[in-house]
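Structure Section — protein described below
Tokens — whole-number codes for backbone shape
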Amino acid sequence: MSKRDLKKYLNELTKEQLEEQILELYEKFSPVKVYYNFVFNPKEETLLQECKLKISNEYFPIQTTAKKRKKPKMRRSVAQRYIKHFITLGVDPFIITDVMLYNVEIAQAFSSENAIKQELFYKSMLNSFEQAVIYMIANGILNEFKTRINGIHKETMTQNWKNESEFNAIIERFEY
């Protein structure tokens, strides 16, 4: 069904029929419920804190017992899922950007304390960084995050990341 056909169909319905359909969608489909819950009660700060906790737990797991320490999983996908979810909900671009940069910053904090041998880790962080810069440019908020962008770049130099020149190339390419 095209958007035009849907509009035509919706115009033919009475207000009560529309309300009934929306309530049915709300009850049947979890994404619709999540969307409406966010629209009517946008606790962006709570979502942000929950998200940051989950991302940091990927690198610095919470100790479950006095003897056992969970192993860091370092999954970029956790942050990516949150970012995609926030974009779908229509969360403020400043919050989404904060999550994008936080993901790279927490990974850098981890790598400053731990030797990382997987080449994929560095490539993944480069991709995250590039996506964040592109997102900031698209939303016209790059200038507000210059300090953090430069901080991430400086940290790649300090830690002597193998792909530091690629981080530099991203910054130079967008010449902010």
